[in-house]
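Entry type: protein chain
Record version: 2
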Amino acid sequence: MSAFFDRTRYPLRGLFVLLALASCSVALAALPFDLPPVSNPASTEHHPGKVIWADLVTPNLGAAENFYGGLFGWTFQTIHTGDTDYAIALLDGRPIAGMLQKAIPAGEKRRPAWLTFIAVRDVDAARGMAISHGARIVSEPKTYGGRGRQAVIADPEGAVFAVLASASGDPPDFLAAPGDWIWSASFERNPKQSATFYSVVFGYDVFDLPSADGAEHVILSSDDYARAAIHTLPPNHRHPHWLNFIRVEDAVGTSAKAVELGGRVAVEPFVDRHGGKIAVIVDPTGAAVGVMEWSETDTKVEPK
């Protein structure tokens, strides 16, 4: 899996997404089978703070496969165990994401969501550090053969994410190909306070971004690579959350195709500060994902 963001300039202004639900994250952290390795072949690299995986919880696995396969060219390997259906999403034969089918009980206000996995060396140490700085544990650490050890955490504002100590090492840092993850961002009520939490847990360097929109924007960096951003939660959204972005060659065309495939556009394509267009789309079952253009000729700027 390639880097989510490779020394890029800093994206985003004021995006919004649907709520990621902790109850779905628990299901992902209790799968009754071993998970495939993140790096294949195995890597000796370790990049704490890097987003290295994403999992989708969806009530309709077939619909999700049709949508993401048609939109990004992903193929799938499905694992059936008892009552559990889990699919590995592949891009050119490389595993880049997982999808778990989980029904949403009638009457419950849940929406499908993507869960962001951030690399750590020691899951239990990260768990303890997170708790001591105001987080809560959604799912306790669990080890999966091949994958490694992981846990699901809600940050002090409630945004849910996972930590993962990969048994196969972390993917190397290089620019994501079209169809692969390129960036991640969290939307919080107090971005600078949240940045302090994430810097303590993951050892990030923190950089403030200049802004003309009245909101706060913060970059989280490690190994001289921009790893993720934190933005002010838009006033019309109550729940802090993470959002992941997939690199595309044409955000306008991808958004139109998403609608053709049964999805919808939550944030229409617009030109971001790095010069390319970005948008947020919602799949047919309600999970949100970002799309981002990125040119091979774009200057790569390290946060100094």
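Comment: The first strand starts at residue 51 and ends at 58.
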